[in-house]
Amino acid sequence: MVIRKPLNLAKFKVPKGRVIVLAERCKECGLCIEYCPKQILEYSEDYNEKGFHYPVVKAGMENECIFCLFCQEICPDFAIFSEKEE
Amino acid sequence: MGQKRHPMGVLIREDRMPHIFCPGCGIGATISNIAEALLESSLDPDKVSVVSGIGCSGRAAGYFKLDGFHTTHGRPIAFATGLKLTNPDLTVIVFSGDGDLTTIGGNHLIHAARRNMDMIVICINNFNYGMTGGQMGGTTPTGTWTTTSVYGNYEMPFNLPLLLTACGANYVARWTSAHSHYIKKSFLEALEKEGFCFIEVISACPINWGRRNKLRTGKDMVKFFLDHTEIKENPDPAEALIQMDTPILCGVFANKDKPGYLRAMRERLSQRVGIDVFRGDGKVELPETEEKLQKTVERPKKVEEVKIKLAGIGGQGIALLGLIMGRAACIFDGNQAVYSQEYGAEARGGASASSVIISSGKIDFPYIKNPDVMVVMAQGAFRKYRKEVQPNSILFIDKDLVKPYDLPEGVQVYAVPATRLAEQVGRKVVANIVMLGFISSLTDYFSLEAVKSALKMSVPKGTEEFNLKAFEAGYTYGEKLKRGEE
Question: What chain A residue is nearest to B16 in terms of C-alpha separation?
Fold first, then answer.
């Protein structure tokens, strides 16, 4: 399979974001983990107050968020969002 | 790291989080999408109001940091209609569920669509009555399982896009709760439109519907929605019936530019009546062409709260009498007035009553228990309402028709031969107007010009002069009575 690269690819900067999880609101539906395009989220070991495993950023992938806001849009509980990093 | 705020915190009541919705529920995501769209639209949050009914999605009004209205079951559209008519500047969003909007409030839905009432309706369709435990409803697809269809549902569900398109809604769209961007886009489109905008959001209900249909988790449901939907441009609403073996058709089913209810009403009323300003504060701009009709006076005539009860027999014009008084007080004197009627099933002859409350301040309660003024125009009505005559109140009666008895202490009785005077003027039907003239000569609840203008406004066209003559007859009688001549 040939993957074509645009010639001016170097001009484009992939935005960087930082995922912030408000753990106490999470209800462990898993949508953010399922639909993160970079697959940087996983369930936590800990429980939150209600006994759910909330999402955490996988170790070593803290800088991989591309600020697509998928998680923020799909989260039914207003528990996750992303902040743009310069 | 300090607690960061969610970007939707501007429009969402964060102190109420976590909300009551189940894990994986689509309502939360939809609220989030709508809030995002509202942020993008840069509407003034004070000019947006959310109305919702009963059910899971009925809680939405409480989670938006906007003016909200949590209404009775099935009636959010009725409430929203009132809200929009009294405050036309408001953007009214109805956010409710399928059980609330389409089954219990089905009639409100279709008639609001028929009228093209200016509002945006977000209908969260989760295929069942979720809050009560997953019963079968009007939108449950054929062949699916719920608590009350344990052998599989054998009824046909509503095809909502077809129904709403047929009823004449301006904008009809359907998405699922997995289509965040589309909901947002649709909502922004609907904000630009006038008339009835209906967005059906097929929502994940993993706990009550999904659990019984092999879609146990929110993830399964979102996957189901993404795999089993077909997004089309200009889809045919007739094909939009939801069946489990064919993909769910999504898209914008109707996008018309018919005039909305408010515009249609304004156009028609400004032509016919000359009223072209509707502000919802009780003041009406009347046409200036007719010289005698006065506009709302600047300084209202001060009146303490006075409760007037009018009673007579059907056909005497008791209702009209009350209406004229109320109009005189609120339209032409700039006071507040509340008017209500009561009557039996008979068109003529049964005792009928109406009541008017006039006040400079706001009126809290529209019903009268202890009237300050009682107007009785027939003996039958006197018998029926005799017990409501209060001590030290004022009683106006028709001299020939009413013979009062057993009155409480201190009642001042003023009698006028209204029917006889009306007969002298020409016709018996204007007895109520004679009574009106008599009352306005003896009291000062409304000014003379106001009551005359209200009279002209309320009687049938072409009979104004005749009615004014009857009014003068009653008024002169009252003036004579004051001077002690009668």
Answer: A25
